[in-house]
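Team,

Forwarding the record for the chain on the shared tracking sheet. I've put the sequence and predicted structure together so nobody has to dig through attachments.
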Amino acid sequence: MQLTSRHSAALLISVFIIAVCGLTYELIVGTLSSYLFGNSVVHFSLTIGLFMSAMGLGSFASRWITRSILGWFILLEMAIGVVGGCSAALLYAVFATSDFYYPAMVLFIVLVGSFIGMEIPLLTRLSGGRESLKDTLANVLAFDYLGALLASILFPLVLLPELGLLKTSFATGLLNMAVVALNLWTFREWLARWRRLAIVAGAITLLLLAGEVWAVRLTSLFEERLYEDEIIYARQTPYQRIVITRWGEDVRLYLDGNLQFSSRDEHRYHEMLTHPAMSLTRSRESVLVLGGGDGLAAREILKYDDVRRLVLVDIDPAMTELARTHPALLAINERSLLDPRLELVHQDAFKYLEETDEQFGVIIIDLPDPNNESLGKLYSREFYKMVRRHLAVGGVMASQATSPYFAREAYWCIVHTAADVDLYTWPYHVYIPSFGDWGFFLAAEHNLEPTRFSLEVPTRYLNADLLAVSFIFDRDTAEVETEINTLDSQVILSYYEQGWRRWG
């Protein structure tokens, strides 16, 4: 068939959109898997590797398509639209209802990757009727790479925060169907059964549109299966998935599916995290909290009248805004983030320590567990070096450090890493019903005497006797030898994953 400039333009536009959709599907699978299971490096590596292999398989298989190339291309594009567009919803449903997430993930990747791999050679062969092979390949590859670039920019900055995973998935499927519509219309005179194809394409488009409209409801249905309690708030931000649940008087906060607190016992966690350091420091005038966007650590710190300035650094402005406005959180954090002594900074904790030259009498580290690389760096030797540099003379740091029972090696790795930068460390732990046995540690440049601990503010749980026994570890939580966590090694991730895998 003889191509005109209009035909060639339609094919190149198709290449561009297909590239956008293909990379977006990869990012959807990698992001959803990381959200559900943590360890983003493993899941993105698996996703990319499987996609590339499947594309190679599809490209090889395309050699057997020798007739009706245009028809095959349109059928493949419709298959990608329906399978890829429904992918996030289907994978979420599999996770919520069965133990077969990984087989379903691999099946999806192989199907979509193979179909996309078949399309590119077909498009190249279709485009070759007007230009030389070298010009055709140059144009196809150029538009393919440009489409991938656009997807890599749009997904984290626009699609994920504005639409969420399910809506992004359905919207990407609709883009595939737009390619179908473009080619059905452009090449209608060359397709004997283009009306039948148009009817099938219309049905798929209606399915994807229904998914787009009902995506929020679908997300709620799946999350209701994942969370035992009523969901009263859910939002996807550029940084994390925030979910708040309620059962009776118990309010719980989840970030990326991981429990952050239960209102029934969070006071145990936050009193143990904050008051030892606040009592043992030389000065409480200036305090730094890294993380803690829910305002609960700030609530405890602001009980001290001699705190003149509290800097709270949290990367996600949506989390702190929620803590400043949502009635359920305001009742728990006692409006701490509205206190005039508090200064909010929305920045990565690592970056903040790199850029500031301030020193603080107390530094509280209330960050999520190290279940991915971006969090793992906040438990590294390089991170604790910066923490030490920002401790004022006589200052004390306190940090949560995951469970010494469920993730024993990870806990002691964190303690050893802080000690490796010439900080004195005092590990301690407490039982929290929602979490189990939970670990913390104190650190300072000078030798502390925890027996000097005395409470000057009201608490619901902590007293001097409880703190004294919290430094004692049982045989199954006692210190074990570990490597030091660095930015280069990130051994904390394997320790953490291996520890929790034993229990779940």
